[in-house]
Amino acid sequence: MGIKGPLSREELAKIDAYWRAANYLSVGQIYLYDNPLLKERLTTRHVKPRLLGHFGTTPGLNFVYAHLNRVIKARDLSVIYIAGPGHGGPGLVANAYLEGTYSEVYPEVSQDEAGLKRLFTQFSFPGGIPSHHAPETPGSMHEGGELGYALSHAYGAAFDNPELLVACVIGDGEAETGPLATSWHSNKFLNPAHDGAVLPILHLNGYKIAGPTVLARISHEELDALFRGYGHTPYFVEGDEPATMHQALAATLDTVVDEIGRIQRAARTRGFDWRQRPRWPMVVLRTPKGWTGPREVDGKRVEGTWRSHQVPLAGLFEKPDHVALLERWMRSYRPEELFDEHGRLRPELAALAPEGARRMSANPHTNGGLLLKDLRLPDFREYAVDVPRRGAVSCSATQVQGTFIRDVLKLNRESRNFRVFGPDETASNRWGAVFEVTDRMSVAEIYKTDESLSVDGRVMEMLSEHQMEGWLEGYLLTGRHGFFNCYEAFIHIVDSMFNQHAKWLKTTRDIPWRRPLASLNYLLSSHVWRQDHNGFSHQDPGFIDHVVNKKAEVIRVYLPPDANTLLSVTDHCLRSRHYVNVIVAGKQPALQYLSMDQAVKHCAAGLGIWDWASNDRGGEPDVVMACCGDVPTLETLAAVKLLRELVPALKVRVVNVVDLMTLQPQREHSHGLADKDFDDIFTTDKPIIFAFHGYPWLIHRLTYRRTNHDNLHVRGYKEEGTTTTPFDMVVLNDLDRFHLVGDVIDRVPGLGARMAYVKQMLRDRLLEHKEYIVRHGDDMPEIRDWTWE
Asked: How many Cβ atoms sit within 10 Å of the Cβ of residue 523?
């Protein structure tokens, strides 16, 4: 049974003191670099020269944290704390320090006055720590630097974690973002029988940086109706008098935790059916902006206004009276009651925090690598496509990949540590085989006419790339595995979310106590070159340009040319740790080139000469025909075949690239090819005609330091597109076989003057192509049915 009744006078006094201690440390981090216990009068010497902290959200975060600690201790719960408000870092650092975790991982920030000084000095200061709930902070799995993802991360953490409660504080500024707005629907995907629980806590303090927030300015009735419409039961805790608010939040948390327990027990005892979908509780906490801070500064109201959002007291060097006001503010927390003469938190207050892994700052779910278990993977070689003749057999690469993913789901069904995520495109991207062993997940109403839909599905689909990315990130950050499939053009929607996750991975590589996570794996299909009916709106290969901006140690980009190379790459990505892996592969039937043994060797090297397509063995080539991506590979091989017919004496070397990062020098990326090896393959002085899946300048950017860069000529997507045939798409962008042959004639010395008739033939073929598709609505048979044979 839950705890009922008000806090006793002693409990109230202690929890208020703990809250004051957290507030004192929060303000100290923002302002002070010396004299943390105020044994002397403050001077500008004790004030940071750079005031970068944000105090407005911190008292509320500390308030919730203190009360969650009480609930954790009373009920022996496993709870993690996600702080959505971006600059709430001081509060979370303060609480990790009060719980002792901070000093355990950073012994130099000790539990005494010297440690307090170090804590204050380092905050938002050169050589120190950020102002967010950053990876450096124990207990963090959500930085909050970019607003909008807190609740999606929370649900991702709760999936398949039945004993975990995720307390997610959402700032009312954050609540205005699109990703946060869509994440309220996550409760339709949480199964109380085998998932954990999420407790959303909407913190309404009324203001953003310089103006009011939307949800703080609507009526109580409208706010209540909004969240009931989302499927929650909202509980309101509102006020500004600490003693009253302590009692109100304590009673509310007891009520909502009891309700969560009741929901879970019912589902785990009787089984769960969508007709029993619960109304999960949530809390709406309304407190003044800058609560407990200066009420008035320079004759202007601060507490309860937008002025307290950042630094309530500015210009401390020019305004000595502000220093006096800061001292009064700090002393209002009565630090002498909180810390002993050595600067240590008094034992009776320290005892309020949970112990060991029950501390939210030490919960292993916030350092997911500690809990990570390897996936059970089938042997990808067993899914190989038989290739008796190169470039003659046709199949859908992602459909073959889908059978492999199906069996990954099957093998890890009992361990419940792998899910598939995608915005309503799993079947469209040809992963339909997964529905042979699982369903789409939903706890909303299910109709008899629905297919592959159940309350226990492992495929997470909602038509929001933001939601899918957030769920998957939360799932990975708490020690599980997943795969995100998406249309290539629309993965851009999560550009900034990928950006934040990549920064997290980069930062945590250098934090010794953080453990590696499973990689964030993307399949980008329905790609730029095969949008026959969708047209220009669906044609954009630029996500890979964005990805390669990130640090080399965390990003990998693969463009497998056929099904067997895709299988090899997929197995590698699922085994990898602490990377972002981007795989680009087409879903339409396409020609197959490599046996499985050949594919494994090719993928291990990252790029290589296709000797079977080349005719330069025993000497130097006249031209190098390079390709990266399935459609560019097809057009390159077709161009090579034409060249053999038209210029049989020409020595052509065909190079295929599957790992894009091999093009960079080794000093820039660990997968990069050594300069000597690169020169051996691409030559030092011969023309290179490079057919690329994406924007051409990316290849130039990756290779600009290579010896033969001046002879590199790249064809790729140049923002030309429409609703048209597959071959016409490559023609529009000059990536087709005829343009590639023309490039060879123009670039190889001595060919141009004697190839006038060939050039004219190429132009004629392009004209014939245009006339044919306008008349028939399809590509010419000799194009559509082309094979290497």
From this structure: 30
